[in-house]
Design brief:
The chain is of the alpha/beta class. It has 12 helices and 6 strands.
Length: 382
């Protein structure tokens, strides 16, 4: 899913969410010819009836108002804050990103495609009645809500952004049809200070919310170990009809807004794992979204180009040199030097959870906390 107009989602020149990251990602996708390996579709902006699947009418009206006149934004509904400054066309750009994710979900459900990618999406912090954390409309929640409206009975959402997927969890907190799994930096040290293991779902959906809260400084081995110690077992139990994943690139060790130490190579390994899990448990139906990521030249374009390549069944070898044409584009747009290869030079591996755990290890403690909080609620052994 791609429309050049998604780059109009722009909070201004001093904001960390620079839309150049989207343009550079699509430029790298094209440089590798991946736009010819997958169909590139554009979709219309989400209309009011679609936005109402998750968001309140008064909030949508407020977004429209500040979109027309940013000067009236006073912080109400989270609009006009440092995180979410108002800008002309805010409603249109936000609804367009949401429309791309919803259209991808519809194409999956109708059997038109097997995989769909919207790397402009993954805006997982937006709440039903407010903007938060650089997110205005929650495209991930809207895509899931549309799948439920179309008749889906089980949708799994896996979020590996460094920040907790709080908006998606909130939208489906008491809905047993949706399993939300978020793996993120511990809320003690990072926005939005939610996503504790004890957050497990509402009274009608106990065990449907899963949170893996990892200590600051977690690197490739611990991050991958935590993912594989929790996610595959839950998906095997839940058997989703569609898998929706969010691939924020801000877990990377170069990201300026967080404190994990994950490499591009580990991010790619989780992308491959999500692809495989979609085929194993969701009949291949996979909607992959972007998310956070503020190393906008060195990390985001490479990470999400790997994601597109995996979804296209044309994975990019990590040792592949970055095309010279794209490096020229990077310099022309940013006056920065581009990375030379599609790898950070890591060969990530992780010890299997079934081989045993170390109760003194902080990452293993995080995994244990999640398994003990959630697995019994689902009738599984912790």
């Amino acid at each position: 899913m791609w429309d050049e107009a998604v780059t109009r989602y722009d909070f201004g020149p001093s904001h960390p969410m620079d839309p150049v990251r989207l343009a550079l990602t699509m430029g790298l996708v094209r440089a590798f010819g991946l736009d010819r390996a997958m169909e590139v579709r554009a979709a219309p902006a989400a209309g009011d009836s679609t936005l109402r699947l998750v968001h309140r009418d008064d909030y949508v009206a407020a977004v429209r108002e500040v979109s027309e006149d940013p000067g009236v934004a006073d912080g109400s509904y989270g609009l006009g804050t440092m995180d979410d400054p108002a800008f002309h066309g805010m409603h249109e750009a936000s609804a367009l990103i949401a429309g791309q994710s919803v259209a991808g979900a519809e194409a999956l459900w109708h059997g038109e495609v097997e995989h769909a990618v919207n790397f402009a999406g993954g805006l997982h912090h937006a709440m039903p009645g407010g903007a938060a954390g650089f997110c205005v409309y929650n495209d991930a929640s809207l895509a899931i809500a549309r799948l439920l409206e179309l008749g889906a009975e089980r949708v799994a959402y896996v979020d590996v952004d460094v920040h907790h997927g709080d908006g998606v969890q909130a939208a489906f907190w008491d809905d047993p049809r949706v399993l939300t799994i978020s793996m993120h930096e511990h809320p003690r040290t990072l926005f939005p200070q939610t996503g504790w293991p004890e957050e497990t779902g509402g009274p009608q959906a106990e065990g449907s919310a899963v949170n893996i809260a990892l200590p600051a400084g977690t690197g490739d081995e611990g991050w991958l170990r935590a993912f594989h110690a929790v996610v595959p077992e839950l998906l095997a139990d839940f058997r989703p009809q569609v898998l929706v994943t969010q691939h924020g690139a801000d877990t990377h060790f170069e990201d300026p807004l967080a404190h994990l130490a994950v490499s591009l190579d580990a991010q790619r390994a989780v992308q491959e794992a999500c692809h495989r899990l979609a085929h194993e448990y969701a009949d291949g139906r996979w909607l992959a979204l972007g998310g956070g990521g503020y190393a906008v030249v060195d990390v985001v374009p490479r990470s999400w180009t790997h994601l597109v390549g995996i979804a296209a069944h044309r994975p990019v070898d990590p040792e592949t040199p970055v095309p010279a044409s794209w490096r020229d584009e990077v310099y022309a747009r940013t006056r920065q030097s581009a990375p030379a290869r599609m790898t950070d030079g890591r060969s990530p591996s992780w010890p299997d959870w079934d081989a045993g755990y170390d109760p003194a290890d902080r990452t293993d403690q995080a995994v244990l906390a999640t398994r003990r909080a959630v697995f019994p609620l689902r009738g599984m052994l912790a």
